[in-house]
Design a protein that fits this description.
Length: about 525
Amino acid sequence: MSEPRGEPPSGLDLTTAEWGMWQAFRNGGTHDLRTPYPEQNDPGGPHTWGPERSVRADIVARLLLSGPPANPGRVCALKLNGVRITGTLDLSGGTVVPYVEFHNCRFDQQLLLPESHFTTLRLVGCALPRLEAARIRTEGDLHLPRCVVSHGIRLTDAHIGTDLLLNQLLVRRDRRGLSIAADGMTVGQDVQAEMMRSHGELSLRGATVGASLSLRGSVLSNPYGRRALNAPQLTVERTLYLTAAGISGSRPGGGVTPPYGIGTTTPAHGTRVQRFECLGGARLDDGRFGDAVDLSQARFEMEADQELSLRRVQTPELRFLGERPEGGRVVLSGTKVANLVDRYDSWPAPGGLVMAGFGYENLIPLGHFPLALRLQWVAAATPEYAPEPYERLAGALRASGEDADARAVLLAKQRRRRETLPLAGKAWGYLQDWTVAYGYRPGRAAVWMAVLWALGTVYFSWRPVPPLKEGEGPVWNPELYTLDLLLPVIDLGQGTAWRPTGGTQWVVAALTLLGWILATTVAAGASRLLRRQ
C-alpha cells in the first residue's frame, strides 16, 4: 500500500525532531529546536545536544534531493535553527532545488558538497568539522557568516552566482595547512570576508570576483607556513580592501558583532576600528584590480624570509597607507598603477622595499612627505644604484607640473651614480656638480662666468698685456680680453693681438682652461637635459 502523497515512508522511522523537520520542509517554514537558555544554543559550545535536537544527515539529504511536494499554496524550503545533524551530510553531485538555510546548527561530520548545484545556500553561525565544496555551483549566494570550521573549507573551482559572504567566519587549517582553498573560484558579485579569522593559508590563486573583495578587519595568521594569503593572478573587477573595519556594537564576552549584511564603506573618523592583520607573507602577484588595492591601516607582520609581494600587479590606484612592516620585504617589481596614494611612515625601512620596474603616473601623498623624504624612499628601495626609480619619480613630478622638484630628483640620481664610478669619473662628476649641477641648475654657469670675468678684468686692469706688435692691434680692453679667453668657441679678436709674459701667461692659461671646462660641463648637462625632455 502506497504512502499518502507527501507523507514520509513508514520505513524511515522518523524521530520527533525529524517529523517536525519533514513538515516544516513542506510548509517552507523554519524548524527551530533551540532552548530558552542561550548558553545551550551555541553550536560550538560544550553542551550536549540530545536526540530531541538531532536529525539524521540521510534524512536531510532525502529532503533536499528527492523531497516530498509542498503543501498547497506553499514552497518547499529547508530552514533549520539550533539543530544537530548526525552522520555525514553528503550531497556530492546533487542538484538541490529547495531553498536551504541552516542557522546555529551543529554538524557532527564534514559537509560534502563537491560538484553539487544549489539555488542559494546559507549556513549562519554553524559549527562543522569541514566543508568540502569543490566545483560547487550556486545560482545565488553562498553564505557562511559566523560559522566555525575546524578543518578547512574547500571551494576550488567553485562558481558562486552572486555573493560569497564569510563575515566573522572562524576557520582553521586542514591537513595541507590550508584554511580556505578557493583556487580558480568565480564569484559573480562581492566577496565579503570581514572580521574573519583564518588560521592557515587562505589560497585564492586564479580566483575571479565580479565586484569587490573585502577583508576589512580580518586576521589572517599562518605560523605553519610561508604565507597567510596566497592569491597570485587574482582578478577583482572593482576594489580589494585589506583595511580596517568599524566596530558598531559588542556581544557578551567582549567580541564584536557587525551587521550580518555586507559592509561597503571605510570607517568614519573617530569610529572604533579593527584593522586588517596579516601574520605571515602575502602574495598578490600578477593580480588585476579594476578600481584599487586599498591597504589603509593594514598591518603585516612577517619574518625575514617573508614578503608582501605585489609583483606585476595592475590597478588604477594603490593606497599604501598601512602600518610600517617591521620585518620581511615589500616587493613592487613590475607593478603598474596610475595613482600612488601613500604615507612616508607606511613604507618599510631601508632594505625592506623592492620596486624595480614599479610604474606610477601620479603621486598623492598623505601627511608630511616632502621631496627630501621621497628621495630617501627611493634610496631605501635601491641599495645598489639603479636609474629607473629616480627617472620614474622625476617623470611623475614633471607630469604634475613640479619641474623644479623633477630636476632635483635627476640631480640626486647623478650624485648617486657618481658613487659607483672610478676615481677619474668621480672627479669629473664633482666638477660638473660644483659648476652647473650636471646641467639641472643652469644658472650656476652664469654665476661662474660672471665671477671669472670680474676676476680677470680686475687682474688685467692692474697688469695690462703688451701688444704683439707695437702700434698695431685693437685698443686695450681688459673686459673684452677676459671674455675672449673665457669663450672657447667665439673669437672676439682679442686673444691673438696681445703677448702675455711672465706670470700673466699662467693667468691666461688658467682662464682659457676654465672656460673650456665650463663650456664642456654646460654642454654635457644641456645634452643630458634635452635627452630627458
